[in-house]
Amino acid sequence: MSELLIDEKKLVEFESAAKIANFYLKKTGVALNFLGYKDFFEKYFNVKESDIESVYELTKESIMWSNYLSELNSLVNVCFLNKLIKQENSPNEKLEKEINIVKLFKKHLEIQVRYCNLIHSETLKLYKENMLKVAFRSSL
Amino acid sequence: MMTIKYISIKQITIVNIKGDCVMIFPPKAPLVKGNKDINYFQQLAMLVSPCLKEYGITLNFQGFTELIDEYQDLKFNDAEKAWELAMMINSWSDYFSSLSNVVQKIMLDSETDWLKAQAIKSIRHDVDKVSNGNRFSNKDKDVIRLRKKRNVLKAFYDELQAKVRFLERAYYHCKATYELGRKTHIESIFGK
ipTM of the predicted structure? Predict the structure, then answer.
């Protein structure tokens, strides 16, 4: 497999880290797939506070994305730990670089899981407030 | 009334005629195993399954995917469904929690096996220099096998713990849906 050119500055972005990690993870049978993840954030950033239905959808979507990323993180962890064994057996610079990328990607995944959980808590709170407003209005 | 333009099976995204995204869930089965589409959790379960079979444990998650599908379809005004789901999710949370305890025990045992094998090989190779002995033992096939077994058990145990947390959140969400759904329904009829 050809060598991958890495722009170190871009590694701070989840998307770039995922693209680079995908190059190494593919070899171990872990295919990354984030179809819809950008759309989910677009929806979150554009949702109207009073739109109960969309806010409610976001509570479910965020928790499902958090679960999905967490599952991926666990699978990536197996690859990461097994790569460490390989490195201890026959240390080489190429493998060391690979380990660092996978480790960085794992950190990114953990951050994304926490982010999705925060979105879930926030949208759930908003949904509750909206529903209580509806209850108050309909009781007048 | 919303018109569904298309529904993608692999990417669970529904788009209405205006082109606005309505439901954006993660891909259901991002991996392909043989001729079957599977998700990351199923892949992890397949990896850990032989290790657990040694201890007489067979993994069974029948019904879990269906439960998640039902949860994804839950509407904010369907209090009855929310109550039903809350009960089921709570049972699954208990199931995952029990399983994680058993897996933790097996993981700790396998960790002991690995360290024991490593120590024996290390002493056999070099009694005086520990690091030299360890370097040798890390190359031993049996030590590598035990270490890999422990790794997959550790990853699975961590994932089971994450599943319990996920289900606890989902349970609380369903409970809130039920309570608020009932509250708005009752107050719209009888007032506060």
Answer: 0.90
